[in-house]
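Repro:
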Amino acid sequence: MKDVLDELAAARRSMGATTLPAGEAYTVELRRRYDAPVEDVWNAVTDPQRLARWLKPVTGDLRLGGSFELEGGEHGEILRCEPPGLLRVSWLFGPDADEWPGTSEVEVRLSPGPAGDTEFELVHAAAVGEPMFPTYGPGAGGVGWDLHLLALARFLADGPVLDDEEFRTSPEGREFVRRSAVAWGEAHLVAGGDPQHAASAVEATTAFYAGEASA
């Protein structure tokens, strides 16, 4: 389990604030280093065949101004694409998501590291008032991104593809989810979150991602 928890510890997590087309928004932010050249990491986050190995299968018009859809239903438009350093997309999910455009965006920023590695940053912005935050806090998206970035780390290291569902329900995966939820709770507190809300969100997020609660 040590290597899995080491990957969790490799990321720095924070919350912030920004503005989206729909208005005021909060952000969940992850920063970490990958031991791979920036061109390789860029390819892994933009090539459909490679995306399917660590994120989800994707279809659509994958170019600036085009739209995409992941197998799980997440979809949006490609807003900025500046290889090999910046990718920004709108990020909508759920049956009513298209009625609320401009409420969620994901941006990935890459920069070359000093040893031929890559500094990776992911920022997911969601409109204040979105329905998941009152129950799950920043872990609503943060734990999911932690799981995906673990899968990306294994993929870049030529390791086995991580089966998300199987991993999350394993003892190792449950511990990963628990610690990820706690880490996002700590980020919530640092950002000025209410301690009672942060504690209840950690509990709800842990249960949700470990398969112990319904959506």
